[in-house]
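Attaching the record inline, Q. Sequence:
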Amino acid sequence: MDCFVAQIERFCKANNLLPDGGRALVAVSGGADSVALLRLLLEMNVPVVAAHANHGLRGMESDRDQQFVERLCDRLAVPLIVTRLRVREAAAARSMSIEMAARELRYAWLERVRRKQKCEVIAVAHHADDQVETVLLNMLRGTGLQGLVGMRPVNGRVVRPLLAVRRADVLRYLDSIKQDFVTDSSNLENKYRRNRIRNVVMPALESQFADATQRLLDSIARITQGTDLYHELVANVISGLTSHCSVEGAPVRRIDTQRLLEYANCPMLLKEILKSEGFGMDLADEVMTAIKSRSTGASYSSSTLTITVERDFIECVESRLLKNAAYEEHEIGSAAFQQKVEIWRKSEPFEATSVNGRDTVAVPAALLDGARRVVLRHWREGDRMRPFGLHGTKLLSDLMVAQQFTSAQKRLAWLLEIDGVVVWLVGHRAAEATRVDKGSTDWVLLRSRVRQHYPHQAPQAGLILD
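Structure, as predicted:
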């Protein structure tokens, strides 16, 4: 069995499963697989803490399993953390299956224990036969590429050191070291889908196709390699469609939708883009309709990101920035005000060339001296301004549309308001109220510190997705 241990060590090293010197939290049910995993890690000199979750679903048998694990860890001098999970109550409260509720509760508890015990990883005992069962289940439920790949050796903090070996190998190892284990009687019942795959489907396949499990494992390995390549190529394509810019000082990403539409399977590519941004793939059809109809302003938000369909691109902004924009307001003289606008009082004769009406504006000193309230704030529905040189006021939203503001620009733009009157759309347009007479020797120069950056993208070759 030395070669078996060496095989596990090579697999762990190749996939960086066990950081040098770091402790592993080992999920130990008492069954053959988890007991073998614990013994293997100890043989490999990995510092471990064991964790056992009693699901309380099999009465005395569940308690028997817990007692077995307690005795095993005591004999091996392995620290053990035990809990009893209320699976049935959780399943009823969340309207989910017993299997799913048990899995969610178990992994959530394991992560809490991992942090408390200062372990680097959570080691679980899934092996190659489990991998085949998982992929077959995914296929029968209906799955995409990720479902055909199955379980990865590493998934966040969860690692699977036994994923490259068969269950028969695990049992031979336990026999060689004369290590006993307990058997979960529910594994013999076919009321669960996975059990039906294990106890009915796989034996039938093996009876009809020589070494069916190994052939399926070989196919899964090839699919995994192809999927990894696919995601690498798609990531490169998405990078080529993406530009980074600054809108009113806020970082923004833009996806070029006109170039997106050039791809043979642009709906599939859009699904990958949305997935990479944290959105569900079921949103893709709605977004694609908005893109093709050039329906600007269609907006969608996740917990962290807001995307908006503009004329030629999708704009991606952190949701918190847009949420905060609704409430931000800074009074003149405050540090936040000074970070956005520089102010100089001038005594030399004013010339029109001193300002450009966008980044720099001038206001009569008397306008500020006599003001009761001067603030910088964001745009609100119904805001109006009398643009410099024009008669009458206009809705700021109309001015923004005329200047082709995106949704993010509109919501993040700063306004200078003096006693309730908007006098400057900062960085873009000044109001008639800012007019300073030529030659005046008492005026104030305002300069925007907020810099806009809108890059132009050069066309790039990409991947055709059929």
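The chain has 18 helices and 21 strands. The chain has three domains: 2-208, 228-322, 329-448.

More tomorrow.
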